[in-house]
Amino acid sequence: MLDIDPSNSNEQDSPVSLRTTILLHKEHPAILTLSEADHRLACLIRLVGELTLTTSASPFESLAMSIISQQLSTKAAATIKARVKGIVPEFTPELVLATDETAIRQCGVSFPKIRYIRDLSMKVIAGDLRLDALHVLDNEELLKQLTSVKGIGIWTAEMFMIFALGRQDIMSVGDAGLQRAARWLHQLEERKDGNYLGQIAPAWSPYRSFASLYLWRAVDMGFVDSGLPVEVCLDSSMIAEET
Predict the structure, then answer these.
(1) What is residue 196's three-state secondary structure?
(2) Is 175 noted as a catalytic residue in this protein?
(3) Considering 13, 38, 169, 175, which one is annotated as catalytic?
(4) How far is residue 50's CA from residue 48's CA, in Å, rounded to a whole number?
(5) What is the pTM of this model?
(6) Which 3 state secondary structure label does DSSP give 212?
(7) Which residues are CB-neighbours of 3 under 8 A, at least 6 positions away?
(8) Cα gap 53→96, rounded to integer Å
(9) Is the per-residue pLDDT at 16 higher than 70?
(10) What is the DSSP letter of 19?
């Protein structure tokens, strides 16, 4: 397991090109910066503890599987993806295009999604989407290229940039869970536009992706639904540990 120090990067927000595990802990430079920038986020980080983010060794496969997973439960998506991997074990654009569409459909993939995956494959082969040169693309250009593929919207592209590439400063303002967690974290008044991240996320740059991981975990662990301030949740957790 590698402890990646983002301060050593030569680029403002460089992607991780090989499969790597990023360990986020209290002494990590990014976590120190986030904790100093936002007291309430610092409390959440202490409450949640260490997190890991494992990037993808195959960006093309990750994108294709993201398309397959859209609008499916986690269990259903996992079953269908395993079937697809069974008939296309070496997941490359060339082999995807060479695979009979009916065979992919029999795995449970809808015909629209098959068209999207084929469009992705053709764009990668043509060089319209430069998955072979991710390190030279900034976030804006990569987002533009990703969303040029049929079936890949902004949210899917942002999730790919965070979870597959390990990019450090992605803020998905369209993610309802993040918005809800941001409102809870800072106990914000209701906004008509629902953009609570707009009030607080700028302080988290250049590590907004890592802050997002903690917000998602706050949702998963039930802290957001509890409605209790993060400081109260942290105090309760510390008392429980002492008893």
Answers:
(1) coil
(2) yes
(3) 175
(4) 7
(5) 0.87
(6) helix
(7) 22, 23, 25, 28
(8) 28
(9) no
(10) -
